[in-house]
Amino acid sequence: MTQTAPTSSTQDAAPTAPREPGRIHRAWFAAAVAFVTIIGAAAFASLPGLLIGPLHEEFDWSRGTIGFAVSVNLALYGLTAPFAAALMDRFGIRKVVALALTVIACGSLATVWMTASWQLVLFWGVLVGLGSGSMALAFAATVTNRWFTARRGLVTGILTAAGASGQLIFLPLLSWLVEHHGWRPASVTVALAALSVVPFVWLLLRDHPADVGLAPYGGTYEPKPAPVQGAARRAVTVLFHAARTGPFWLLAGTFAICGASTNGLVRTHFTPVLGTIASGWFTDRFEARRLLAVYYALRGVSLLFLPVLLAPAVHPPMVLFIVFYGLDWVATVPPTIALCREHYGQVSAIVFGWVLASHQVGAALVAFLGGVARDAFGSYDLVWYASGGLCAVAALMAMVIRRRPERAAAAVPAAA
Predict the structure, then answer these.
(1) Whole-angstrom Cα distance, residue 320 to residue 299?
(2) H helices of 243-380, where?
(3) In 42-182, where does DSSP find H-type helix?
(4) Which end of the chain is less congested by CB atoms within 10 angstroms, N or C?
(5) How does it sit in the membrane (predicted)?
(6) Pseudo-torsion of CA 6, 8, 9, 10, nearest 10°?
(7) Helix, strand or coil, per DSSP, at residue 217
(8) CA geometry: angle at 83 spanning 77 and 86, to 5°?
(9) Domain ranges within the chain, ordered by starting residue
(10) Strand, helix or coil at 412?
(11) Longest C-alpha distance within the chain, in Å?
(12) At 217, phi and psi to the nearest 5?
């Protein structure tokens, strides 16, 4: 008789570090702290679109100049993520996240006293961009990978939804502040929101389950690994090795299209929460690449029908598009993280950081090219159709991703 691989229940029953029976596993507290932290940091994502008009009126800066600062912010948001993941392996989650939140607060607060456009680029583009990049989805991936073996998809979905939840909380407040009191109180609010969660991170979040003598939720006890030296070199080395594998380019390509069809095209802040949590639940139960294919296909279909639905008044079909598209907004994140974990193991958070960078590149390109198309053709119809077609390509790319053989070693070294 052929010996079968142990089931997940067998693995869960393996010896773990002692824990008091009946108590909630510490991993859920780590996830809760991460959730609150991401919500607090989400205030910065709600503000850029609200600043363009007031800054244009007060300083007479062109919208292109203001948009350039936002573009720098977006670019650094993506490019910082893989280095931040490597820094978390070197210095720990608490130190990196606490510093990132402080940088966000300093950058946002400094804008209150700016008088020249280069200061906007420095404060909001560079400082907030670097801080927000360190608070990007790579943070959620690192927490999930370290603290959870079971329920990783669900936890990833919840932490991803935290960003959308934070924007849902802060956008109305910041809009009211900008309208009634000006943009400076709104910037101060962002700074205070970032600083308010620093104590939660420093006092309640631990870098690894072994720090409190526990195993990951649903896993077996493992000693805390030694800090990995050379964080910047390691991030680049991981990219070099991952770029030699097919799954990396397929994941980066699909996520670039994800950014192009969401952040770069339609930026909403409301209904993604439920869809992302549900997607995390699905990722624990279904094959991640098939989920990605379904998500991109459905998103593409919705975009192809959008030009027909657009009208001066909001009709029921348009409401259905808003809800459906919103539910599919960041549903692609949990299965993308799961595929990175499957193919790249211990360095999956860093690899996902590079995949996230491709997401921001796709968003930036379509944000620019969409405006060019609008100027050239007088409508966005071509942009909607092209984005729908790109989503169909992403669905096919997702299905091409092969499952990694169980005995195959990760193509990327754990330490470089």
Answers:
(1) 13
(2) 246-261, 272-283, 288-309, 316-327, 333-344, 348-377
(3) 43-46, 48-59, 63-91, 93-110, 117-120, 128-134, 137-147, 152-181
(4) N
(5) Multi-pass membrane protein
(6) 30
(7) strand
(8) 140
(9) 25-213+221-229, 230-404
(10) coil
(11) 79
(12) -60, 120
Separation between Cα atoms, residue 363 and residue 342, nearest integer Å: 26
Min mean pLDDT across 103-112, 268-277, 360-369 is at 268-277
pLDDT band at 222; cut points 50, 70, 90: confident
332-384 pLDDT, tens digit each: 777 888 888 888 888 888 888 888 888 877 877 776 676 667 667 776 677 77
Q: Who wins on pLDDT, 184 or 71?
A: 184
DSSP H or E stretch at residue 381: helix 381-400
Residue type for position 275: G
Q: For residues 331 and 274, give the distance between their C-alpha atoms in angstroms, rounded to a whole number.
A: 9
The residue-averaged pLDDT of 279-302 equals 61
C-alpha 170/C-alpha 68 separation (Å) is 23
Q: Tell me whether domains 25-213+221-229 and 230-404 share a fold.
A: yes
Topology, domain 25-213+221-229: Growth Hormone; Chain: A; (1.20.1250)
- Decide: helix, strand or coil at residue 160: helix
Contact 334, 276 (CB under 8 A): yes
Instruction: Give CA angle at 124 (350, 128), nearest 5°.
Output: 30
CATH code of domain 230-404: 1.20.1250.20
Q: Tell me the backbone φ, ψ of residue 406, rounded to 5 degrees.
A: -60, -35
Q: What is the mean pLDDT of the chain?
A: 75
In the chain the first and final C-alpha atoms are separated, in Å, by 42
Q: Can you give the pTM of this predicted structure?
A: 0.69
